[in-house]
Inverse folding.
């Protein structure tokens, strides 16, 4: 299936979710993430501030922000700056996403885990983003563990891969965790 067809299909499925279903799915996904040894051992984690149609990251960030060092991306041209999470510094930025303000930039080399948003994933860790390539460009520079999160229906059979696409190492949905890359490969 082509990426634009996947985006259309997933957008339609998301539009059918009730608030209760969204909340339940986020709780299940983040419960699986926080039980993983990789999460427990990671101190410096790049999250993202979710859009209304994505699994909500807000409660999870608030729950762990006193015990983990969270970072959020900020759009800067065609790239992403990485800044420390500070609830009081968030402002609506590019694409109507809450982004951190300030000039305390962090190198991607200092990040141990990246929680990556996507429209869809497949069982090989390939992902369909929103089409701008921000995370692919960022992840090309990173050795951090890359974790994709999403609803069960965001997992598709196969995604058409392009040369610049960077897969994730783990995909977590409400009902399953898929360990894909490196030391996790079966």
């Amino acid at each position: 299936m082509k990426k634009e067809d996947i985006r259309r299909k997933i957008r339609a499925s998301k539009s059918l979710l009730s608030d209760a279903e969204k909340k339940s799915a986020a709780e299940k996904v983040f419960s699986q993430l926080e039980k993983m040894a990789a999460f427990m051992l990671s101190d410096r984690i790049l999250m993202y501030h979710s859009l209304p149609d994505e699994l909500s990251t807000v409660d999870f960030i608030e729950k762990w922000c006193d015990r983990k060092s969270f970072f959020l991306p900020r759009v800067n041209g065609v790239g992403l700056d990485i800044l420390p999470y500070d609830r009081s510094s968030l402002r609506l930025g590019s694409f109507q996403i809450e982004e951190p303000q300030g000039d305390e930039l962090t190198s991607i080399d200092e990040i141990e885990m990246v929680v990556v948003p996507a429209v869809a994933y497949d069982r090989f860790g390939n992902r369909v983003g929103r089409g701008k390539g921000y995370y692919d460009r960022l992840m090309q520079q990173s050795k951090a563990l890359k974790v994709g999160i999403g609803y069960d229906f965001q997992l598709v059979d196969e995604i058409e891969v392009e040369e610049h696409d960077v897969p994730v190492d783990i995909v977590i949905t409400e009902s399953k965790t898929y360990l894909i890359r490196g030391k996790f490969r079966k």
Notes: The chain has a mean pLDDT of 91. Residues 112 and 144 are 5 Å apart (CA to CA).
